[in-house]
Amino acid sequence: MKVLIVDDQYDQKIEEIIAQLKKQEITDIHHVMYTREAYQKMLSCEYDLVLLDLHIREDIGEEISTDAGSALLELIFTDDAVIRPKFTVGITSHEESYQENIDIFQKFGVTLHLFNSEPNFIDNILNIANRPSSGVKEYDVAIITALRHIEFDALLRNGSDWKELLTDDCNKYYTTTFVDKQNVERSIIATFCPKMGMPVASAVTMKVLNKFSPKLLVMTGIAAGVEGKVNLGDILAAELVWDWGSGKLEGNESESYLHADPDPIKMNPSLAIELRDISENRQYVDQIKYKWCGNSPDTQLSMHVGAVASGSSVLADYLSVDNIKKQKRSVIGVEMEAYGVLTAVSLVGKKPPETLILKSVCDFANPHKNDDWQKYAAYTSTSMAFEVISKHIDFS
């Protein structure tokens, strides 16, 4: 087993860790004192375990930085040139640093350990590092929804034989298979976000990408539609997504206003063309509505391909939607996670998967909004997602 310790000191903590490693008959131990040196080593060497301190210098002669360890962690997961270690653990003896950095470690699915000279520290780390993966592997498709209630429940009720996958992770994962358009059995991993919003969606997405390396990433769920352009239950395929709250907020004592400065992310053009064909030919939508067992809106079910805005707030007023329409006149819907998902995909480092955002309209983000059509909308987005991945994606 090859171990890299990244710590700017050779102190009692490092002596204890090395002693514990040697008790496990691990002698191929490298110790570096700067993150730049660690980075150089990981360009040419694959380590089984990296122990990464938070308080460290980037290079010789520089000051100790409280975020250098986190910066190196980001490089490990986003730089294609790095040979990613099989297992990474962050370590710190400082409670304050632990609290400041825990979110970024959780974003990449990496343990950050508050070290207190525990005699069994290395034993516990090695037990986790050497534990069988319990089915963790590369998957053809990863599906992420927002909250478990409504959206993920719709996924588990779609008729597939879902099984829970046990992993060393705070997220819950479920797996199933389907047959693609070339009659090849493909695998799916699915999970949900513990909270609404772009930051959590981005963190969960990055973890899924690094853990399971899917060829296709799909997000399903519910959204608000732009009244007059779409109907309740309609499926929104996001061809372009932006953060409608991005920009500079200015104002005075009586009012404030946003100078919007969005940075939109677009869908793969060939996938967008395929979805437009599905939409224009009204494929699947009639049978999806027919199979629904509950109440459904009186309007015809359709799929729309277009611009969807993401934001950090639940909207229930006319003015906010009007302001979003000023940013992008062609907007068809508003939701809270898609931009975070797409941002994570763009930063994953290795070859990013194709990404498909399919959300269905449950309300129009006005004062009359209610929860009446959430289950129906979650059902229509999930149903369309499975039609697309099984009949229109070339996984080869």
UniProtKB/TrEMBL annotation:
<dbReference type="GO" id="GO:0008930">
    <property type="term" value="F:methylthioadenosine nucleosidase activity"/>
</dbReference>
<dbReference type="InterPro" id="IPR035994">
    <property type="entry name" value="Nucleoside_phosphorylase_sf"/>
</dbReference>
<protein>
    <submittedName>
        <fullName>Phosphorylase superfamily protein</fullName>
    </submittedName>
</protein>
<dbReference type="GO" id="GO:0005829">
    <property type="term" value="C:cytosol"/>
</dbReference>
<dbReference type="InterPro" id="IPR000845">
    <property type="entry name" value="Nucleoside_phosphorylase_d"/>
</dbReference>
<feature type="domain" description="Nucleoside phosphorylase">
    <location>
        <begin position="141"/>
        <end position="372"/>
    </location>
</feature>
<dbReference type="GO" id="GO:0019284">
    <property type="term" value="P:L-methionine salvage from S-adenosylmethionine"/>
</dbReference>
<dbReference type="Pfam" id="PF01048">
    <property type="entry name" value="PNP_UDP_1"/>
</dbReference>
<dbReference type="GO" id="GO:0009116">
    <property type="term" value="P:nucleoside metabolic process"/>
</dbReference>
<dbReference type="GO" id="GO:0008782">
    <property type="term" value="F:adenosylhomocysteine nucleosidase activity"/>
</dbReference>
